[in-house]
Amino acid sequence: MSLADRLSNLFKGREEFDLTEGGIARPLFYLSLPIIVTNLLQTAYNLIDTFWLGQYSTDALAAISFAFPMVFLLISVGMGLSVAGSVLVAQHIGADEESEAEYAASQTVALSLLGATLIGVAGYGFVRELLGLLGASQAVLPLATDYMQVISLGMPFMFGFFVFIALMRGYGDTITPMLVMFGSVLLNVVIDPFLIFGWGPFPELGIQGAAIATVFSRGLALVVGLAIMFRGARGVKIRPKQMRPDLSYARKLVGIGVPASVEGMGRALSINLLLVIVAFFPDTVVAAYGVGTRVFSVIFLPAVAVARGVETMTGQNVGAGKPDRAADAANFAARVMFVVLGALGVVAWLGARPIIAVFTTDPEVVDIGVSFLRYVAPSFGFIGVMRAYNGSFRGTGKTLTAAAIVLVIYAGIRLPTAYGLSRAIGYEGIWIAFAVSNAIGAALAYGWYRRGTWRDAGVRGAEPAAAQGVGDDLEVEEVSTDD
């Protein structure tokens, strides 16, 4: 069997499986696997910039360390609209309402690009002050500002591509976004050093060059994504005449999307606020914390991907009037993620020292990092459970429930526990706070899901006036073409 045949068997498109019929495991696997690859490619984006800027200068590397959390925060502010669009598309597709799915996608693209432009303009004006609040030094602040101002101006391209991924996922196609992301990463790999170091005919732009390379490659990926959706040959179709902002529909998108943005911002802010507590301790503890969170970001990729898969499966099955199948998908995903992440936790516990040693040669940092993994690794499976059920909540449109669980766990449990225990017993108290909050988060998500209030939560609503008659118009156009 050739490599192409093996890949074809591994990655299957939406036309080869039905999310609303048959077994649960196969469609969830084929839906989630490309998301894992896409997320790995997204991680590669950050690693590429980090690698080249590390070769350029230490100050540039420090600047990017301040910039990445801010990029994540800015994107989280607008990410809710992409979640709302994905959920609406999934529910309409599940209900066999193709024209309504197209309208939802068209409105999401238009409103998201408008919102990203406003966020970008605001970000451009305030990034220097925000970076200063994060503690950037006088040597690093100008470089981080240069990077973030370019990223802010390119926010419509950055965010627009995430919207493309979300809408295609809601339709059930996760392979096309994966392929487009691969091309985008490859382009970034090629042009990054030319713009940073000034190779060939290009000027030496330093950290601004990395930002321009990122925006350019994402912008080209967005153009490709829009072309795919305008054609409608793969995934959901968008129509120019349906992209004029509809204020009543915008309220629906915002109503679903704002809690999803709060959920994303809650995760981003919790990492940054925990840094404030960690910073009470020596730099070796801060370094160990940074290494530990990077390890987590890779280990948790399957949970993030499966949660997105459950979100789509739930949306389509709720739209199809099959809440029991949606529940089966969520419960199956929770069990699988508990086992898979639990097994990865055992690996991380047993291999803690060599894992940490990959990132640092400082023996003290290694020792502290090992303690971090060994406290937290036993709770990895609980994160999979919480992610799976939160994905299902989002799929039904209960984004406020998902956001509430995240805020309770992070703001109500993890941060206060980390602060209190760190004052009482030292930095190990922060590690204990991770483990405790992960276990409570799983119990809370499971208990809330068992209440069953999500079963009546469909968010499709009535067909929008602007979408009515689309099918009839297409039939008339086809007849006239044949004539």
TrEMBL record:
It is a multi-pass membrane protein. The keyword Cell membrane applies. Keywords: Cell membrane, Membrane, Transmembrane, Transmembrane helix, Transport. The keyword Transmembrane helix applies. Its main location: membrane. CDD domains: MATE_like_12. InterPro entries: MATE_fam, MdtK-like, Membrane_Transporter-Flippase. GO terms for cellular component: plasma membrane. It is found in: Cell membrane. This is MATE family efflux transporter.
